[in-house]
Write a structure and sequence with these properties.
By secondary structure, the chain is mainly alpha-helical. The chain folds into 2 domains: 31 residues; 35 residues, no CATH class. The protein has 3 helices and no strands. α1 packs across α2. It is elongated, with a radius of gyration of 23 Å.
Amino acid sequence: MKKTSVYLSDEDRARLARLAEREGKSQALVLREALAMYDASRPDRNFEIFSIEVDPEAPGLPRFETAQEFQDWLDTEGLKCFGADSLGDEPLS
């Protein structure tokens, strides 16, 4: 682990101190946990799920190179197993 400095406003510094005191943790641990939670809450903007290596002989979803390829497949093939919409074509009011 390496030491890193961050610049915080007086308000944020006080908030960090309060959180650490309340949780019984160091301020550094509170910051690391907050960073991990922030990172986990962000969507995968690089669509890394599409780069997962899959055995070509394995059954399942076809391989997609881009999010658009996946969306196109979903629009044309992926939802067929769900059947017709029981509500019909009428818009909901």
